[in-house]
Amino acid sequence: MAMVKKSITVTDQQEQWMQAQLATGNYASDSELLRDLIRKEQMRTSEVEVIRQELIKAEQSGFSRRSPDDIVNAVIARK
């Protein structure tokens, strides 16, 4: 996969948080930490969209014995 070099600006508070994450040893660099955060956000966004589509389908069907919480839990269980 091709990489693109970026330059970003963060607040002092964000920098302190990033340095604390690096200090745990879970990440070797700022770049690795940011890529992991982006991947997690992409997954979360995808999961939210699946849940939204399931809720829309249930609502449009006009009949469902499942509550919105039941639908959300079923989608999460499939992951």
UniProtKB/TrEMBL annotation:
Taxonomic superkingdom: Bacteria
UniProt keywords, alphabetically: Toxin-antitoxin system
GO biological process, any: regulation of DNA-templated transcription
Classification via InterPro entries: ParD, ParD_sf, Ribbon_hlx_hlx
A Pfam family assignment: ParD_antitoxin
Full protein name: Antitoxin ParD
Organism: Pseudoalteromonas arctica
